[in-house]
C-alpha cells in the first residue's frame, strides 16, 4: 500500500469506528451498524465492512452477506448532489423517457449512478408524488416539475458546474 | 423414539435412527432420492426442493422436503409417484434456468453422451464438454435421476461472470453455480472459517466473498472442503482440472499425524489426479487441509527418480539395483556401530520403520536410528513414560464435545489441521478455549483467554493454573481420591507455587491465570492440546509433567472429550516409535546424528528421504551435515538437497505405489493402498531396506508382501497384537486394540509427579530477545490490498512489528520507526513499523496472513512442496532500524 492510501484508509476507519461506537440503541447488530455508517457517510466503503466485522465480532463475509442483501445500501461514494428523475406512469405519459435520455447525455452515463466527475448521482424514481406536475425531477429531494428534455439537461449540467 | 422410527419408503420397511430425516434414512438403505442442497455431515437446509417426497401419515397426505423432515411413525413415504416426480422435475427445471443444460437435458444423451462432440443440438458454449467437471459432476446425476428431458430446452441465462482463477489451488466459475450454498455452509458450519458467503438476494443471489475480494483476504484456509462438496463445475481444483478418473482408491494422507483418510482419484494412465477427503474417515470425518488436499501430486512428477544411481568420479551415474547394493554393502559394511546412522522418513510406513529398525539392530548393529521429524522426541518420550503412550489419549473427534480446551505451544490449525476442526467446532458450540502461546495463531483469535507468557515459562503457567484450582477447591475430588498415585506429593509441591511469583515469572496477570483455571476446572470435559514449539527438550518435558498433573487433578483422563493430544510433526512419527525406529540405548537422535555428522563422528548413513527437507525448521542443518559423510545412501522419490551428496541414490516408491500401514496421533493404524504399481525400478521403504539387509548378509528379511511384514509386527510389538491387514480394511483400528480412550478402566491409576518451582522457572529464557512470528487467516481490523501484477493475486499490507517499549528503548528505537528483526547470522525475519504492544519484555512479534503463505506454497517450484511449509518457529533476534530506502510494508524475505 502506498502511504497516501494507508493514511486515507485509516482516517476513514477512525471515522467509521466513531459512528459504530456512538450507537446508543439497546440492540446493536450488523444491520444497525451498517445503517449507522451509511447514515453518516452515505455509503459503505470496504473499510465499513471490515470495521463492522471487527466491531460485531463477525467476519467480513458475513457482514457482506447482510450488506449486499439490501438494495438500499450503496458501496460507492455518492455524488455531491442527487438528481432523481421520475419514471413513474404519470410522468412517463408526459415524456419522462425523453427527460431521462437528455439527463443521461448531460451526465455522461447510461444508467443510474455517478457522473464521471463524481458531482452528481442519478437515481430513477418510480413516483415522486407530484404527478400533476410531471415530468418531475428532484435535486437533493427538492422537487422541480414541468420539465422538458432541455430544461432537465440544463439543470444537470449546472449541477456539474458546467455552464449551460 | 430412542430406538428409531419405523416407517415405509415405497412400500419397504425402513427404520430411521434417532434424529435422522427421511432422506438420511433412505440413504442408509441405498434408496435414492435426488438432493442438491443437502450434503452428508452437514445440517439440512431445505432450500432446493429437489428432494420432495409424498408422505402419508395419520390419514393425511403432504409433499415435504425429505432432507429436513423427520419420519413420523408408520408413515408411508412415496418417492416415485407421478406427482412427486413431476414436482421434482419442475423444481430442477427452474434450477437449470441459470445453468447450461443443453447437454444435460438432450434426448440424444444416451447416444452421444455429453463427453462427445455434438453436431447440432447444443450451442457450443453451452455444452458440458466445456465444463471441467463434465461427466463427473453431481448435478448431471440429479438431472438424469429426475429424467429431465426437454424437447424444447429452457431459456438459459448466462451470468457472464469472470472466472476467478487468480487465487491459489482452486478455481471459481460462478457461471456454473446453482446457489445450493453447500460451499458457504461447509466453510461456515464445518470449517468455521466463513470465507465464503451468500451475496445479494432473490433473483441475483449468488455465492462469493465480501466485495468479491480474493480468497487470500477472505479468511480461506485452502482446505478444499468447498471444492469437495460442490455439485457443479463451479468449484474445481486447478491441477488436473479437466482430468477424468477411472478409479477411486481409499488411502491416507501422509503429511501430518492426523492421518486423514482420503480418496485418491486415478486416471487411465495410473496418475493420481485428485485427492478428496473420505466422508467415512474416522480420523478426519470427511475433512482435509491445504497440504492434504493439494499436496499429493509429487507422485506424478516427471522428475521422479526412476532407477538407482551410484557416484563415480564425483558424478552420479545410472546403475542397476545389483550394482547399487554392491556399493552399499562395501560403503556401510565393516564400520563400527558408532559411525553409522539410519534416518527414516516421516512418511515411512510401519513396515518401513520396522524393517529399518530391524536392519539397524541386527545388521548394522547400531543404536543410531531415528525418524527425521522426531524433533518432538522429548514431548513424546515424556508422555510415553508417564502415560504409556506418546500419543493422544482420546480420539480426535472426541474434541467436538469438549467443554473446554487448553492449547499450549502448538499451532494445530496449520500443523495438524484437521485435529483443530473438531476443536473449533467445540468452541463454536460454546466450549471455552484457553491458549498459552507467545505467538498469535488462528486459535488465539478464538480464545476466551489468550495467555501470552514469557517464552519458556509455559510449564510454570500451567502449574500456576493447577495451584489456583487447588486454592479454590475446584479439583475433581473423587478422581483425585480414587485414581491418583502420589497426589499428596503433587499437592505439597504446588503449595510452593505462589501465584504472585508465578505471575511475575511468567509475565501473566494473576487475575487472568485465575480465569483460565476456572474455565478449565469448571467445565465437564477439558482437553489439553500440547505442542513444544519454541521449547527446549527440558521445557517440553516439564510442560508434559505440568499438563498431566493438571489433567489428572481435574479428572480429565479416561474421560470422553477430555485427555491429552500431543501436537507433533511427521505423519508416522508415532509408528516409527512403535516399531523401534527411535534411538536405542546410547543411540543418537536426529539432532545428535546431525551434530555427529558435522563433527565427523558419524561417517556413513542411510537416509529414507521421502518428505525430508532441509527447509523443515528442525532439519535446516541436515544438508550441510550430510556433506561431511564418507558414505551416504539416500532412498528418495525426487532429487533434492538431500540426494545431492549421496554416494548411492535409490528410487523410492511414494504413498501411491504401496500397500502399507501408518499409525496416526490417536493410535489409529490405517492402510495406505496402492493406486498404481511403480512404473520403473522404484521400491518401497521396507523393500529397499530388506534388499540392502539381504545384500549385507542379514537374515530374516525375506518378506514377500507388506502384509507379511505386518504379521511379524503384530507378533513383535505388543500394542499391535491382534491386528492384521484384514481387520484394518474397514477404516483402521486404534491400539491397544479396542481402547479408544486410555485410562478408561476405572481400576487404572494415574501417577502424578511433584513439580519443582525453581526447575520450572529456570526453563524460561531471559536476557535475549525472542521473535515469535504469528499467522492468522484474517484480520479485518487491518488494511489489506490484494494486488494482481500478472495473473495471480498477492496480499499487500503494511507490516507491523510488535515490540515491548523497554526493548525498543534499549535498541534506541521509537514507536512508528520502520525496523527490522534480524537473527544472529544476519537473516531478516520481519520488517515493518514498530508498535509498542508486545506484552512481555524480550518478546517480539509480527503477524502475517495465511493467504501470503498459500500463495508462496502454490508458487514453489518443487514437486513435493508440503515438507517446505514454514512453521511458526521461534528465533533469538536483535532489532535495528531498517535502512531508509526500504518503504514501510516492503515484504520481509
Ligand atoms: S477452501 Fe477456503 S472457502 Fe473453501 S471451505 Fe476451505 S476455507 Fe472455506
Ligand atoms: S459454488 Fe458450488 S457448492 Fe457453492 S453454491 Fe455454487 S454450486 Fe453450490
Ligand atoms: S490434517 Fe494432516 S493428515 Fe489431514 S489432510 Fe492435512 S496434512 Fe493430511
Ligand atoms: S409518476 Fe412522476 S411524480 Fe408520480
Ligand atoms: S436437498 Fe432437500 S431441499 Fe435441497
From TrEMBL, chain B:
Domain 4Fe-4S Mo/W bis-MGD-type: 246-301
Domain of life: Bacteria
Keywords: 2Fe-2S, 4Fe-4S, Iron, Iron-sulfur, Metal-binding, Quinone, Repeat, Ubiquinone
GO BP term, example: ATP synthesis coupled electron transport
Pfam families the UniProt entry points to: Fer2_4, Fer4_Nqo3, Molybdop_Fe4S4, Molybdopterin, Molydop_binding, NADH-G_4Fe-4S_3
UniProt keyword Nucleus, yes or no: no
GO CC field: membrane
Cofactor(s) of this protein: [2Fe-2S] cluster; [4Fe-4S] cluster
MF (Gene Ontology): 2 iron, 2 sulfur cluster binding; 4 iron, 4 sulfur cluster binding; metal ion binding; molybdopterin cofactor binding; NADH dehydrogenase (ubiquinone) activity; NADH dehydrogenase activity; quinone binding
PROSITE patterns: 4FE4S_FER_1 (PS00198), COMPLEX1_75K_1 (PS00641)
InterPro entries recorded: 2Fe-2S_ferredoxin-like_sf, 2Fe-2S_ferredoxin-type, 4Fe4S_Fe_S_CS, Asp_de-COase-like_dom_sf, MoPterin_dinucl-bd_dom, Mopterin_OxRdtase, Mopterin_OxRdtase_4Fe-4S_dom, NADH_UbQ_OxRdtase_75kDa_su_CS
Function, as annotated: NDH-1 shuttles electrons from NADH, via FMN and iron-sulfur (Fe-S) centers, to quinones in the respiratory chain. The immediate electron acceptor for the enzyme in this species is believed to be ubiquinone. Couples the redox reaction to proton translocation (for every two electrons transferred, four hydrogen ions are translocated across the cytoplasmic membrane), and thus conserves the redox energy in a proton gradient.
PANTHER family: NADH-QUINONE OXIDOREDUCTASE SUBUNIT G (PTHR43105:SF10), RESPIRATORY NITRATE REDUCTASE (PTHR43105)
Protein name: Molybdopterin-dependent oxidoreductase
Amino acid at each position: 500500500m502506498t502511504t497516501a492510501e494507508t493514511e486515507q484508509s485509516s482516517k476513514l476507519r477512525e471515522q467509521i469506528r466513531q459512528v459504530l461506537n456512538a450507537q446508543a440503541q439497546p440492540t446493536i447488530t450488523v444491520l444497525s451498524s451498517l445503517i449507522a455508517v451509511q447514515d453518516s457517510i452515505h455509503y459503505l466503503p470496504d473499510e465499513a465492512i471490515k470495521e463492522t466485522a471487527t466491531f460485531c465480532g463477525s467476519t467480513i463475509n458475513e457482514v457482506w452477506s447482510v450488506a449486499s442483501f439490501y438494495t438500499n445500501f450503496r458501496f460507492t461514494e455518492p455524488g455531491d448532489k442527487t438528481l432523481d428523475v421520475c419514471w413513474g406512469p404519470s410522468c412517463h405519459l408526459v415524456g419522462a423517457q425523453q427527460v431521462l435520455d437528455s439527463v443521461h447525455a448531460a451526465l455522461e452515463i447510461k444508467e443510474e449512478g455517478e457522473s464521471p466527475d463524481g458531482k452528481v448521482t442519478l437515481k430513477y424514481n418510480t413516483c415522486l408524488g407530484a404527478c400533476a406536475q410531471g415530468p418531475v425531477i428532484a435535486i437533493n429531494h427538492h422537487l422541480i416539475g414541468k420539465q422538458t428534455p432541455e430544461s432537465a439537461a440544463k439543470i444537470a449540467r449546472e449541477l456539474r458546474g458546467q455552464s449551460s | 423414539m430412542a430406538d428409531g422410527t419405523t416407517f415405509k419408503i415405497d412400500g419397504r420397511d425402513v427404520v430411521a435412527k434417532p434424529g435422522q430425516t427421511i432422506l438420511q434414512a433412505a440413504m442408509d438403505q441405498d434408496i435414492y432420492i435426488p438432493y442438491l442442497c443437502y450434503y452428508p455431515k452437514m445440517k439440512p437446509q431445505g432450500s432446493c426442493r429437489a428432494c420432495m417426497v409424498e408422505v402419508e401419515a395419520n390419514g393425511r397426505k403432504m409433499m415435504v422436503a425429505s432432507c429436513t423432515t423427520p419420519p413420523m411413525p408408520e408413515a408411508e413415504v412415496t418417492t416415485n409417484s407421478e406427482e412427486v416426480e413431476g414436482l421434482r422435475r419442475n423444481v430442477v427445471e427452474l434450477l437449470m434456468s441459470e445453468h447450461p443444460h443443453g447437454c444435460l437435458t438432450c434426448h440424444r444423451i444416451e447416444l452421444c453422451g455429453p463427453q462427445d462432440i455434438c453436431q447440432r443440438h447444443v450451442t457450443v458454449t453451452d455444452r458440458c464438454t466445456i465444463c471441467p467437471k463434465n461427466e463427473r459432476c453431481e448435478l448431471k446425476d440429479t438431472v438424469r435421476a429426475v429424467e429431465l428431458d426437454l424437447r424444447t430446452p429452457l431459456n438459459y441465462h448466462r451470468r457472464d461472470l469472470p472466472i476467478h482463477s487468480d487465487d491459489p489451488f482452486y478455481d471459481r466459475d460462478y457461471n456454473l453455480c446453482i446457489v445450493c450454498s453447500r460451499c458457504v455452509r461447509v466453510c461456515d458450519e464445518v470449517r468455521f472459517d466463513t470465507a465464503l458467503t451468500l451475496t445479494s438476494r432473490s433473483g441475483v443471489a449468488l455465492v462469493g466473498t465480501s466485495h468479491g475480494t480474493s480468497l487470500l483476504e477472505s479468511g480461506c484456509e485452502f482446505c478444499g472442503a468447498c471444492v469437495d462438496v460442490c455439485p457443479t463445475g463451479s468449484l474445481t481444483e486447478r491441477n488436473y482440472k479437466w482430468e477424468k478418473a477411472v478409479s477411486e482408491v481409499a488411502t491416507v494422507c501422509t503429511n501430518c499425524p492426523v492421518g486423514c483418510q482420503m480418496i485418491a482419484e486415478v486416471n487411465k494412465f495410473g496418475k493420481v489426479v485428485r485427492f478428496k477427503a473420505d466422508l467415512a474417515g474416522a480420523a478426519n470425518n470427511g475433512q482435509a487441509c491445504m497440504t492434504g488436499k493439494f499436496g499429493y501430486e509429487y507422485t506424478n512428477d516427471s522428475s521422479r527418480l526412476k532407477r538407482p544411481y551410484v557416484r563415480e568420479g564425483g558424478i552420479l551415474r545410472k546403475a542397476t539395483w545389483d550394482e547399487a547394493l554392491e556399493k552399499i554393502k562395501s560403503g556401510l559394511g565393516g564400520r563400527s556401530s558408532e559411525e553409522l546412522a539410519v534416518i527414516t522418513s516421516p512418511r515411512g510406513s510401519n513396515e518401513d520403520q520396522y524393517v529399518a529398525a530391524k536392519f539397524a539392530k541386527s545388521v548394522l548393529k547400531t543404536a543410531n536410528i531415528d525418524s527425521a521429524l522426531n524433533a518432538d522426541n522429548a514431548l513424546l518420550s515424556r508422555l510415553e513414560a508417564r502415560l504409556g503412550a506418546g500419543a493422544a489419549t482420546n480420539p480426535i473427534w472426541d474434541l467436538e464435545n469438549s467443554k473446554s480446551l487448553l492449547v499450549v505451544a502448538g499451532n494445530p490449525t496449520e500443523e495438524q489441521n484437521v485435529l483443530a476442526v473438531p476443536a473449533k467446532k467445540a468452541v463454536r458450540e460454546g466450549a471455552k478455549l484457553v491458549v498459552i502461546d507467545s505467538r498469535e495463531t488462528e486459535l488465539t483469535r478464538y480464545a476466551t483467554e489468550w495467555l501470552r507468557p514469557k517464552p519458556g515459562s509455559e510449564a510454570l503457567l500451567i502449574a500456576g493454573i493447577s495451584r489456583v484450582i487447588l486454592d479454590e477447591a475446584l479439583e475433581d475430588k473423587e478422581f483425585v481420591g480414587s485414581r491418583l498415585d502420589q497426589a499428596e506429593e503433587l499437592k505439597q509441591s504446588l503449595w510452593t507455587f505462589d501465584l504472585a511469583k508465578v505471575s511475575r515469572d511468567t509475565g501473566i496477570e494473576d487475575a487472568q491465570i485465575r480465569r483460565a483455571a476456572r474455565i478449565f476446572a469448571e467445565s465437564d470435559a477439558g482437553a489439553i492440546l500440547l505442542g513444544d514449539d519454541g521449547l527446549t527438550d527440558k521445557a517440553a518435558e516439564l510442560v508434559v509433567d505440568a499438563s498431566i498433573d493438571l489433567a489428572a487433578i481435574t479428572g480429565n483422563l479416561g474421560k470422553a472429550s477430555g485427555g491429552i493430544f500431543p501436537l507433533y510433526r511427521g505423519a508416522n512419527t508415532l509408528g516409527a516409535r512403535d516399531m523401534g525406529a527411535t534411538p536405542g540405548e546410547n543411540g543418537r537422535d536426529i539432532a545428535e546424528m546431525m551434530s555427529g555428522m558435522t563433527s565427523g563422528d558419524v561417517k556413513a548413513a542411510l537416509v529414507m528421504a521421502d518428505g525430508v527437507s532441509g527447509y523443515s525448521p528442525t532439519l535446516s542443518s541436515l544438508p550441510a551435515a550430510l556433506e561431511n559423510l564418507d558414505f551416504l545412501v539416500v532412498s528418495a522419490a525426487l532429487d533434492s538437497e538431500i540426494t545431492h551428496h549421496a554416494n548411492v541414490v535409490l528410487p523410492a516408491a511414494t504413498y501411491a505405489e504401496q500397500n502399507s500401514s501408518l499409525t496416526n496421533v490417536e493410535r489409529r493404524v490405517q492402510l495406505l493402498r496402492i493406486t498404481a504399481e511403480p512404473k520403473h525400478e522404484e521400491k518401497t521403504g521396507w523393500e529397499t531396506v530388506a534388499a540392502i539387509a539381504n545384500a549385507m548378509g542379514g537374515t530374516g528379511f525375506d518378506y514377500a508382501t507388506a502384509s507379511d511384514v505386518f504379521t511379524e509386527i503384530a507378533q513383535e510389538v505388543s500394542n499391535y497384537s491382534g491386528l492384521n491387514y484384514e481387520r484394518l480394511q474397514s477404516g483402521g483400528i486404534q491400539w491397544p486394540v479396542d481402547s479408544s480412550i486410555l485410562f478408561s478402566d476405572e481400576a487404572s491409576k494415574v501417577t502424578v509427579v511433584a513439580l519443582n518451582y525453581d526447575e520450572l522457572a529456570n526453563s524460561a529464557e531471559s536476557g535475549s530477545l525472542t521473535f515469535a512470528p504469528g499467522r492468522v487467516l484474517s484480520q479485518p481490523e487491518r488494511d489489506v490490498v490484494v494486488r494482481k501484477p500478472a495473473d495471480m493475486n498477492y496480499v499487500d499490507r503494511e507490516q507491523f512489528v510488535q515490540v515491548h517499549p523497554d526493548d525498543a528503548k534499549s535498541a534506541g528505537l521509537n514507536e512508528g520507526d520502520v525496523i527490522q528483526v534480524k537473527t544472529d547470522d544476519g537473516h531478516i525475519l520481519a520488517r515493518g513499523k514498530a508498535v509498542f504492544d508486545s506484552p512481555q519484555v524480550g518478546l517480539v512479534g509480527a503477524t502475517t496472513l495465511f493467504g501470503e503463505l498459500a500463495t508462496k506454497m502454490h508458487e514453489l517450484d518443487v514437486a513435493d512442496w508440503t515438507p517446505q511449509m514454514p512453521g511458526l518457529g521461534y528465533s533469538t533476534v536483535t532489532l535495528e532500524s531498517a535502512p531508509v530506502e526500504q518503504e514501510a510494508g516492503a515484504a520481509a524475505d
